[in-house]
Amino acid sequence: MYGLVNKALKEMVCDRFGTHTWKTIKEKAEMDVDTFLSMEAYPDDLTHKLVGATGEVLGLSSSEILEALGEYWVLYSAQKYYGHMINMAGNSLLEFIQNLDNIYARVSLNFPHLKPPSFRCTHIQKDSLRLHYHSKREGFTPMLKGVLKGLGQKFQTKVEIRQISDRNKGADHDEFSIFVKPSGE
Crossing angle, helix 62-72 and helix 44-58, to 10 degrees? Predict the structure, then answer.
């Protein structure tokens, strides 16, 4: 995982709970790194360790932390670092989701060690689609759910996300049904 993600976790915790809470998390995770370099690759285990320690300190599950991080990523971190790219990737939530693979292709140019996930959309309708998520990384699906929720907020769109296929339950990939709700609903 690139430092940008770990940096976003730190920023999220510090913004919402203060630097003293981050210090407690670092101690619990037995981590002595003070600054994450955005463009440097870090082991996934470090990210999982930080997420686990954050969950313990805040009394939340790792899935809840990753989902919150996904939302935070879209609304703050990604906008801060990749706003121009995000703003060009689509004018609606469903259009943006259909461009996720293209976004990762562009991001990969700057991150040579990136192991990007793959996204494929099927059953595309005016107000829904199915998102197929393939990743070599373990345990980051909740972050994608948060990203999707954050995108709903970014596009001021009410969205319903249902996971219909789960790699942790034997499927070969994760799959989501995404429904855009009409405004006023």
Answer: 110
